[in-house]
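Technical annex B. To support the medicinal chemistry partners, we prepared a structural model of the target in complex with (2S)-2-hydroxybutanedioic acid, based solely on the information shown next.
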Amino acid sequence: MFKLTAKALVCAVSLGIAGWAQAADPILIKFSHVVADSTPKGQGALLFKKMVEEDKVLNGRVQVQVYPNSSLFGDGKEMEALLLGDVQMIAPSLAKFGQYTKKLQIFDLPFLFDDINAVDRFQNGPAGQALLKSMENNGITGLGYWHNGMKQLSANKALHEPKDARGLKFRVQASEVLEEQFKALKANARKMSFSEVYQGLQTGVVNGAENPWSNIASQKFYEVQKYITESNHGVLDYMLITNTKFWNGLPDDVRAELEKIVTEVTKEVNNEAAALNAKAKQQVVDAKTSEIIELTPEERAQWVDAMKPVWKEFEGDIGADLIEAAQAANKAQ
Ligand code: LMR
């Protein structure tokens, strides 16, 4: 029979303890983002943390730390941090992936989607789902799409018609499509990190911007923008992403449970986003610092005519088939 010597026993026990200590060390997921807790993305990150940490199957094996408001990494740095393993999850706006794929530029095309429901249908269809996996060669795995909402134009000047924007400087996210969108209005576009926008608007470095209501309200952009045109001219949504190597390296049961939680959180974020934006709009209305401009159908048609030519410039990079699939999503099945 196999007998343990005293030395071997000590060794086996200490190895056992080391193994146990290792198993007890939770897997840490740092989730960094650039917006406020009150926004759809902010709420989604917090819900993910709560669900992971209360999950019976995971049983404390995964811990989540959420860093909102660019407190850990801001725009431009968060993607690099994900690739370096300094954070494990981020959810950048779909406008911020230009370095990794040109296909996601589709989401920036002005007046492509009629509303957020059309965006939802496209994201959940085969073309949208395939895009989640399109950056794995770069080490980025898409886990889902999270809505924020449709963008509104704001400025220190009333924007009723495209000619009103002529010569103004607009802050844009890091997206070539969005730059061209403003150039099509004979306006200037300036790429700027989200955390710098308030000051940029306040000091006049830029005169205007485009944001969903949740960002306008939570960043208090209404304090420094006299006019907000309810243009709904484009979408600002997110891709929840993780580091492919990190994700594939997780124990199978942990990854499967996290995927289940991500699916539930995604559903919840996407169900709640419209209500959060409606609440945010009311906050802006109540603040009474900006005039909210509603477009007549004729005025809206002018904005469409002015901005839509931008599609042609990017059709080659994005693919006409993808643009067609997005347009098809405008019709409810
Ligand atoms: C922006 O830079 O305006 C947005 O992408 C910020 C965000 O994450 O909603």
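Notes passed to the chemistry partners:
Residues 12-328 form a domain with the D-Maltodextrin-Binding Protein; domain 2 fold (CATH 3.40.190.170).
The longest strand covers residues 140-150.
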